[in-house]
């Protein structure tokens, strides 16, 4: 992980060569306060949408838990995994600690984690599939660009895969699968459709929270920024770098070569503060308060409240 972070930071320093701290500081100051407020608002809405991942997963496995509990588990889980990496461990611990107080078993918490993960990947694949087919220059990073036939073919394969997944759900909806000793309940096609929409909306809101921080950027750039955001987020996720630091910024800058580097990098710094660090501070406080409350006021784990 440390090696990946160092490589990412090294690549980022090369991409930003020629820029001074004065240039970046000036671009940070140039971001209008209303745009910062708008980005914060979009971030809040994005995290609210994220709570739907847990709500839908609980519905799929047939467990009734109060929304405030699902929202707390979702929010803390995602801010920890976003910032620290290793989502299965960091986010998993948060969910387990919160849901166990409501009577859920470790197996049920694992089902929730699998279902929320599937929801995320559904949204990513849906947007990438559509983007690769509809946007001619979507797959272009660091001067390298895939041919239109390769890009469109990849997009069609992704969409066919998703169609096959929905077909399987149509035939086996509600049935339970046994995977490595764990039970996984398959969602109904309608539920899967909601999962698709939730994940796609969340990812577009997160991209929009970054987009509005670049002054003067035309709306026509948003589709390219969305694809770049997806590729950058996935790169950081697969690298397990904390918050994708270095990796996320480097891929974003490479994916949007036509956007002013200093303005985009300043926007990325502000975005990291708004979307990652401030929610992390709030998440730590909420999680700590929840754990202290659990020690002082034990609840009936069978109540589900």
What does it look like?
Mean pLDDT is 84; it is low at 301-305. With 305 residues, the chain is mainly α. The protein contains eleven helices and four strands. The strands form two sheets. The protein has a two-stranded antiparallel ribbon with strand order 1-2. Strands 3-4 form a two-stranded antiparallel sheet. The protein has helices at residues 2-15, 21-30, 33-61, 67-84, 87-100, 106-134, 148-172, 189-211, 222-239, 247-255, 261-296; strands at residues 140-141, 144-145, 176-179, 182-185. α3 (33-61) runs antiparallel to α8, α4 packs across α11 (261-296) and α6 (106-134) crosses α8 (189-211). Helix content is 74%, strand content 4%.
Give keywords:
about 300 residues; two-stranded antiparallel ribbon; 11 helices; disordered C terminus; mainly alpha; single chain; about 5% strand; about 75% helix
How is this structure best summarized?
The protein has 305 residues and is mainly α.
Fold topology:
Elements: H1 2-15, H2 21-30, H3 33-61, H4 67-84, H5 87-100, H6 106-134, E1 140-141, E2 144-145, H7 148-172, E3 176-179, E4 182-185, H8 189-211, H9 222-239, H10 247-255, H11 261-296
Major β-sheet annotation: 2 strands, antiparallel
Shape: globular
**Ends apart, CA distance between termini:** 39 Å
Strand order of the largest sheet: 1-2
Number of beta strands: 4
The quaternary structure here is: single chain
Strand content: under 5%
Taking Cα atoms only, what radius of gyration do you get, to the nearest Å? 20 Å
The mean pLDDT is: 84
| Helical run tally | 11
Could you name the ranges where pLDDT drops below 50 across 5 or more consecutive residues? 301-305
Helix content: over 70%
């Amino acid at each position: 992980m440390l090696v990946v972070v160092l490589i990412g930071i090294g690549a980022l320093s090369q991409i930003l060569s020629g820029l001074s701290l004065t240039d970046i500081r000036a671009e940070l100051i140039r971001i209008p306060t209303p745009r910062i407020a708008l980005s914060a608002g979009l971030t809040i809405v994005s995290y609210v949408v994220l709570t739907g991942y847990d709500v839908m997963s609980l519905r799929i496995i047939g467990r009734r838990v109060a929304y405030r509990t699902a929202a707390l588990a979702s929010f803390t889980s995602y801010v920890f995994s976003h910032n620290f990496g290793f989502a299965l461990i960091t986010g998993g611990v948060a969910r387990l600690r919160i849901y166990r107080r409501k009577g859920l078993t470790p197996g049920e918490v694992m089902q929730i984690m699998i279902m929320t993960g599937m929801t995320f990947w559904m949204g990513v694949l849906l947007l990438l599939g559509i983007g690769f087919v509809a946007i001619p220059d979507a797959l272009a990073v660091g001067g390298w660009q895939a041919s239109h036939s390769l890009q469109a073919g990849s997009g069609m394969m992704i969409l066919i895969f998703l169609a096959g997944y929905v077909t399987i759900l149509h035939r086996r909806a509600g049935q339970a699968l046994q995977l490595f000793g764990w039970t996984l309940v398959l969602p109904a096609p309608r539920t899967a459709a909601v999962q698709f929409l939730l994940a796609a909306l969340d990812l577009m809101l997160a991209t929009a929270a970054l987009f509005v921080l670049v002054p003067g950027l035309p709306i026509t750039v948003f589709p390219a920024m969305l694809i770049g955001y997806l590729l950058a987020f996935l790169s950081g996720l697969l690298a397990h770098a904390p918050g994708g630091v270095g990796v996320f910024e480097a891929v974003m800058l490479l994916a949007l070569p036509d956007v002013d580097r200093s303005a985009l990098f300043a926007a990325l710094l502000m975005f990291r503060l708004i979307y990652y660090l401030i929610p992390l501070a709030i998440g730590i406080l909420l999680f700590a308060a929840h754990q202290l409350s659990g020690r002082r006021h034990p609840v009936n784990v069978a109540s589900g409240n």
